C-alpha cells in the first residue's frame, strides 16, 4: 500500500474529478440498445476471463486457452477483462502485436477491457520506463483498429465512445441484458504516481479526468437504455477491482480515483428494477459478493449513505490462478438472470 504522504495530492485530484464528472444521467447518449447483438428473449452464453497471460508459460499456452474457449459449443461471446501481461515485464510493441494476433483466433466476438499492466504501470523500469499515455495510445491503435466493432473472427457492431477518444468503452444489449465494458484500471485508476514522482503529473491527471468522465457517461447511458427497453439486468465489465476483498485496510490514496465511478454505479443500480452484475479482474482470485450490501465497509469508505443490495460483483481468477474461465448464461425469465460456473482450462470440467 502507498503511504498517506499522497493524501493532499489525492484530495486535490478528487476535487477535480468530483467537479468535472457528472454523477447523474444528464447525458445518456443516443438510444442504441440493439447495437451489437440481438435484443430478444433467447438465452445465450458468454465466456469471461482476464489477467492472463502472465509469464512465459502462460504466454506459450495462451493459444490453447483460446482453442479451449472456442471449443465450448455454448459460448457465443467472449470478454477479456484486461491485464494481458504481468506487471514486471516490458510493454513492447511486439508483445502487443503478438497478443492481438492471439485475440484474432477467437471465433466468437471478443470484447477486451484494457488493464493497468499494459499501459498504466509501464512507467516502471522493469516495464521499459515508457510514458504510460504513449502506451495507451499504442494499445488503442493495435487493439481497436475498427472502433464500433468487437475483436474476433465473427466481429459484431457495438456502441463505442471512439468519438470521445475512448474506443475501448463499448455498450451492447443482448437477450434483455444491457452490457457495458468500460476502461477502469487498477493502480488507483491510473492516478498512482509514475516513477520518480510523488504525485500525479498534470498530463496524467488530465487523462484520468477525461476517461473517468467517459466511463461515467457510458454507465449512465447503459442504465438509461435499460430503463427505456425494460431490460431485465445490467452487466458492467472492467479490469479494476474497486472492492478488493484481499485488502483488509484499504488506503484512501489507493482508491480515491474510483469514487466517481462507484458513485455512478451505486446510484444507477439503486434506481434500476433488476439485478446489476459487475465483472472485474485485477485481484486474481475468484470472488462472488455484494460489495455495497448493508453492513459492507465499502459503503462508508466510498461515502455512500444507502446500501445497494442489487449490485452483485464477480471477480475472475488470474495470474497464477488463471486456470479457468467463467461460463455465464443469460436466462431472461429467471430472477437470477445470470448464472455462471468456472470451467477448468485443462478440459476436466466439461
UniProtKB/TrEMBL annotation:
The superkingdom of the source organism is: Bacteria
Q: Do you know which Pfam families this protein is assigned to?
A: Metallophos (PF00149)
Cleaved signal peptide residues: 1-28
Q: Which GO molecular-function terms appear in the entry?
A: hydrolase activity
What residues does the Calcineurin-like phosphoesterase domain cover? 45-157
- Keywords, ordered alphabetically: Signal
What is this protein called in UniProt? Answer: Calcineurin-like phosphoesterase domain-containing protein
User: SUPFAM superfamilies this protein is in?
Assistant: Metallo-dependent phosphatases
Species the sequence originates in: Streptomyces humidus
